[in-house]
Amino acid sequence: MKRLLSFLLVLALAACSQAPSEPAAPATPAEPAAPTAEPAAAPAAEAAAPTDAAPAAPAEGENAEAPAADAAAAAEAGTDAPVAELPAMPDPAKAPREGTDYVVLAEPQPTYTTGPGIEVAEVFAYTCIHCANLQPTLDAWKPNLASDVRFVYVPAAFGGPGDNFARGFFAAEAMGILEKTHNATFDAFFVQRKFQTASPEEVADHYASLGADRDTFLSTMQSFAVTAKLNRARQFALRTGVQATPTVIIAGKYSASMTGDRGPAGLVETIDWLVQKERAEAARR
Question: Is the Cα dihedral 199, 227, 167, 5 positive or negative?
């Protein structure tokens, strides 16, 4: 028994560290009178034509003015249209400590999940006491998240018996019981101390005690689909440089950790500040 308890203690500690007109013809000298009478009549006839046609000009002018008036109104309306306000940058006075509370990843990485908004991914382990202590703060914080933020859990897969808990997480997710079992698994490990070896069978027994069908759960834990998810979680942690739990990756760019002086509340404040920074910078790109 002492050997088993020592094994679980080592397991818990390991989990927490890890874009142009022609000119007029000249008058004829032999006939001076003829040009006097006929030219007078010609202008009169010519003058009549413009008089008859004159009423049509204003109508044509009115039709031409209508589109111009419409264009002017449209331009005026466009000038008065409200301009969308950009999200505010976070308060520098409340900035977390770069290098202590968070680090900027050397290269932005693909997020764990795909979709709109800003991803906040917690890499955690059921065998990590700091993750267990953080969970109540996360439970109080998550319901108030903005609609453009998506929070996801990423179980740590650092190898060894701890991977069986990660498989248990994915099996519970696949079977639709994760909401019921997540906090209960922290409790089973640290409070009830139900696990001796953390074998797949022992993990399945735990979930069966929470209402899952044991055989179905064990089979799901060992399925190809769960193994694929386990490998994806492992690759995400490796790409983002996760070395310990809990570690929170924001937008694939920032890695935030819980510190001894600020605790769970400080970590959540760091996450909020980085989310606001990412939102404001994205709107300005």
Answer: positive
Q: Which H, E and C letters describe 126-181, residue by residue?
A: CCCHHHHHHHHHHHHHHHHCCCCEEEEEEECCCCCCHHHHHHHHHHHHHCCCHHHH
In terms of phi and psi (left: phi > 0; alpha: psi -120 to 50; beta: otherwise), the region of 43 is alpha
- Kindly report, residue by residue over 65-106, the tens digit of the pLDDT: 555 555 555 555 555 556 678 999 999 999 999 999 999 999
CA dist 234 and 237 (Å) reads 5
Specify which of 31-35, 53-57, 132-136 reaches the highest per-range mean pLDDT: 132-136
Q: Where are the alpha helices (DSSP H) in the chain?
A: 2-17, 33-53, 56-80, 129-141, 162-174, 178-190, 200-208, 214-221, 224-239, 263-284
Is 121:112 a contact under the CB 8 Å cutoff?
A: yes
Residue 76 backbone dihedrals phi, psi, to 5 degrees = -65, -40
Is 32 within 8 Å of 26 (Cβ atoms)? no
Q: Which long-range contacts (CB under 8 A, 24 or more apart) does 38-41 make?
A: none
200's tokens: 């797949």
Q: What are 276's two structure tokens?
A: 């606001």
User: Class assignment of domain 98-284?
Assistant: alpha beta
CA distance 28 to 149: 97
Nearest to 265 by CA among 152, 92, 96: 96
Q: Could you tell me the residue ranges of all domains in the chain? A: 98-284
Are 104 and 254 contacting, i.e. CB atoms less than 8 angstroms apart?
yes
